[in-house]
Design brief:
The chain is an alpha+beta fold. It has a single domain, classed as Thiolase/Chalcone synthase (Peroxisomal Thiolase, Chain A, domain 1, 3-Layer(aba) Sandwich), CATH 3.40.47. It contains nine helices and eight strands. It has an eight-stranded mixed beta sheet with strand order 3-2-4-5-1-6-8-7, with helices on both faces. The longest helix has 13 residues. The radius of gyration is 18 Å and the shape is globular.
Length: 244
C-alpha cells in the first residue's frame, strides 16, 4: 500500500481554505456564508444541511473546482444527524421520503458537490477510522502518482448528536468544520513531506485531527505529527530547494 514502507512522499498545497474562519464574529460568518453560497441555485440550496453548507463554503474559497478535478472527500460521521432524524421519524411510525434518505447517505454531500460545481471527474468518499486524515492523503497522493496533475481534498465533520456516546473516545469536537486543499505533485505553493512513523498513541480521529491540521496550515510551525493506535503520521513543510 502506498506510503506504508516509510518512504516519504512529497506534494504541494496550491491553495487551501477552512470554514468557519476562526477570526470572525458569528454575524460576520453568517454574512460571509450567504455570499459564498449565493451561486448555489435555490432548489439545491434548500437541500443543503448545515454540514453541507460548511463544506461548500470551504470548497468555494479553494479556487475553480468546476469540470474535471478529481476529489477525495473524507468524513468520519458524514450526515449522521440527518440519519438520526430519520430514525426518529421511523420511531413515530411515519414514512421517510426518498429525498431525505438520499441526503443522509455518506456520499450525499459529494453528490451535491458534483451537481452544483458541474464536476464530472472521479470522486472518492472515505469514512476514515482510527488513522483519520491520513487515509485521504494516501488516496489523493496515489492519484498524483498515477499522473493526475491536481486533486482536491475535502475534510469535514460536525459534532456528534448527543444520542451517540463520544466519551471516552476522541470521536467528536464542539464545532463543525471543513478544510479544502488543492494539491499537486509539482513545485510551487506550500511544499509538504508526508510519511508514516512507527510511534503510536491516540491523538483522536479525524474530527479532532482537523483542528490540528488547521493550526498547522495557519501558523509558522513546520511539523505536524498525529499518533494513532497502530502508527503515526507526519507532515513537514519544506523549503522549495529541498522538496524534490
Amino acid at each position: 500500500m502506498l506510503g506504508l514502507n516509510n518512504s516519504p512522499l512529497h506534494f504541494a498545497i496550491q491553495t487551501w481554505a477552512v470554514w468557519p474562519p476562526t477570526d470572525q464574529t458569528e454575524l460576520d460568518i453568517g454574512e460571509m456564508q450567504a455570499k459564498l453560497l449565493a451561486f448555489v441555485p435555490n432548489n439545491l440550496k434548500r437541500r443543503l444541511s448545515p454540514l453541507a453548507k460548511t463544506v461548500f463554503c470551504a470548497v468555494s474559497q479553494c479556487g475553480n473546482n468546476n469540470g474535471s478535478i478529481p476529489v477525495v472527500f473524507s468524513s468520519t460521521h458524514g450526515e449522521l444527524a440527518r440519519s438520526l432524524e430519520m430514525i426518529k421519524v421511523m420511531e413515530r411510525g411515519e414514512d421517510i421520503s426518498p429525498t431525505a434518505f438520499s441526503l443522509s447517505v455518506h456520499n450525499a454531500i459529494a453528490g451535491l458537490f458534483s451537481i452544483v460545481f458541474g464536476n464530472t471527474s472521479e470522486v472518492t468518499v472515505l469514512a476514515p477510522g482510527e488513522d483519520g486524515m491520513a487515509s485521504a492523503f494516501l488516496e489523493a497522493l496515489g492519484m498524483l502518482q498515477e499522473g493526475i496533475p491536481e486533486v482536491l481534498m475535502v475534510f469535514y465533520d460536525e459534532p456528534l448528536p448527543d444520542f451517540y456516546p463520544a466519551e471516552p473516545y476522541q470521536l467528536s469536537t464542539d464545532i463543525s468544520s471543513a478544510v479544502a486543499l488543492k494539491i499537486s505533485k509539482g513545485q510551487g505553493g506550500m511544499e509538504i513531506q508526508f510519511k508514516r512513523g512507527e510511534k503510536y498513541g491516540n491523538d483522536g480521529e479525524q474530527p479532532v485531527q482537523l483542528l490540528l491540521l488547521i493550526q498547522f496550515l495557519s501558523d509558522s510551525g513546520m511539523q505536524l505529527t498525529i499518533k494513532t493506535p497502530r502508527q503515526s503520521w507526519h507532515w513537514q513543510k519544506l523549503d522549495s530547494a529541498s522538496a524534490f
